[in-house]
Design brief:
Layout: E1 8-11, H1 16-29, E2 34-38, E3 49-51, H2 57-66, E4 71-74, H3 80-85, H4 87-108, E5 111-113, E6 116-117, H5 141-160, E7 164-165, E8 167-169, E9 171-173, H6 186-196, E10 199-202, E11 210-214, H7 215-227, E12 239-240, E13 244-246, H8 248-256, E14 263-266, H9 271-276, H10 285-291, H11 299-317
Parallel strand pairs: 1-2, 1-4, 2-3, 4-5, 5-7, 6-8, 8-12, 9-11, 10-14
Antiparallel strand pairs: 11-13
This protein binds nicotinamide-adenine-dinucleotide and serine.
Length: 318
């Protein structure tokens, strides 16, 4: 369980998830107990920040020792679409960052959170209600790195007792930060362009159904699994995690209930093949049964919150 003595390091804190996760962790642990770290400066800075290249192993060790870190959230990664443009770099960052953190966790008895993804599945995986344990033959370098990472997490837990916990996130949608180069990014861009232009051209086709989640639920799940008693975390590779699934066409229809004149058009690009290889919906019953996971948002509630919050944010910066 968490305590006031915990000191948390978030690596990749300036990204889409890190920006929101750091805020929530600081509400729980206090600003000074949560150290943000990234190559890039944070968007909001309300607590300690260390500039870190996680591939600089000695710099990572120095920061962990300096701040007496007891938990690491490792978020630095190259995502699916960007990874296909530079496969060797994606493999290097995604794998070596995890191995450095797992080694350090073994030595220093640190609890680790590392996210996997629906990208760990592939085109031979059952597409609907994808089970926890199934065929996994990913078709992207990002997906290989997530599947291999899952195996390393389970290995370090079984061989060395490392307390590592992981979730296979679906596509994440939030208004506080921009997405970082994934195949599901359209589902964030569409809201910005709906408000700014009243129209959007989707890089995925109208009928492409993917599993998605509102960021607030993803942060709840992340902190939920990290705070769960160790004996309840029975899967040490990575848990399936589901929110809701939709197509670009269905999302556009939902946006139209708030912005009636909103128009969508379609120009699928290389990301279409990636999306086609991923599940359409996910069975997350083991996460629900083992440590009590339960989402709060559906498509309607997420759409309303995105539009209300983005509208206020855009009005403020005008
Ligand atoms: P992001 O691209 O928005 O953020 C990643 C952050 O890592 C960036 O701020 C970047 O500057 C930083 N970074 C990159 N290289 C670094 C390095 N060498 N040292 C330190 N920092 C470095 O990504 P995100 O969407 O926040 O994703 C975080 C994690 O969650 C990743 O592992 C990603 O695979 C996983 N994930 C995300 C989603 C999603 O929809 N966002 C879905 C599934 C899994
Ligand atoms: N949202 C992520 C991506 O599209 C899934 O891991 O890359």
């Amino acid at each position: 369980m968490t305590g006031s003595t915990d000191r948390v390091l978030v690596i990749g804190s300036s990204g889409q998830i890190g920006t929101e996760l750091v805020q929530r962790l600081r509400e729980i642990y206090g600003n000074d107990h949560v150290i943000a770290s990234d190559l890039r400066a944070p968007i909001v800075s309300e607590g300690p920040f260390e500039q870190l290249d996680v591939l600089n192993r000695q710099a990572l060790i120095d920061i962990v020792q300096k701040h007496k870190i007891t938990q690491i959230y490792l978020l630095a990664a190259v995502l699916s679409a960007t990874g296909e443009k530079n496969p060797m770099f994606a493999w290097d960052l995604n794998m070596n960052s995890l191995l450095y953190v797992l080694e350090l966790a073994k030595e220093e008895k640190i609890r680790v959170y590392w996210p996997s993804s629906i990208a760990a599945f592939g085109s031979n995986t059952p597409k609907n209600n994808t089970p926890q344990h199934t065929i996994m033959e990913p078709g992207t370098v990002y997906g290989f790195s997530k599947l291999a990472g899952e195996r390393w997490c389970e290995y370090y837990h079984q061989k060395f007792g490392v307390d590592v916990r992981s979730l296979r996130y679906p596509g994440l949608i939030g208004w506080k930060s921009a997405p970082g180069g994934g195949t599901t990014d359209y589902a964030v861009h569409i809201f910005h362009e709906a408000l700014e232009k009243g129209s959007y051209t989707s890089f995925l086709s109208a009928e492409t159904r993917l599993p998605m989640m509102y960021m607030s639920d993803a942060i709840d799940a992340t902190i939920g699994i990290m705070e769960a008693p160790a004996e309840k975390v029975k899967i040490r590779s990575s848990y399936n995690l589901a929110g809701f699934s939709f197509t670009p066409d269905e999302l556009a229809a939902e946006i139209r209930t708030f912005i009636p004149n909103f128009e969508i058009s379609y120009a699928p690009d290389f990301r279409q093949a990636i999306a086609d290889s991923w599940p359409a919906s996910i069975d997350d019953s083991p996460a629900r049964a083992d440590w009590g996971w339960m989402p709060n948002y559906d498509l309607r509630k997420m759409t309303e919150e995105m539009l209300v919050n983005l509208r206020s944010m855009k009005a403020l910066v005008k």
